[in-house]
Task: structure prediction
Amino acid sequence: MPDHPTPERGAPHALRRWGYFVALSVGSAALALGLYAVVLRTDALDPALAVLYRWLRDHPFVTGLMAFSPLFAVMLVGWGYAQRARRRRKQLADS
Result:
């Protein structure tokens, strides 16, 4: 089934897709707000979060790794792309 519009698929298909998009967007927003309200209103997590805070405060290396993990991930992806480019250049030079 092609993704581009065809005369037989027309506007009803596009309206249905927009309907799904809006319904899923409203549902996900309601779920996110509900989760936020539950976490905001509950005090049951306080003891566990206090323990986690003390542990992270006592282990700054772990906190630093967590802070720099997006940078490490980007560097790893960049390294992978560089390896692919090197292989491609070598393959073109050999042929």
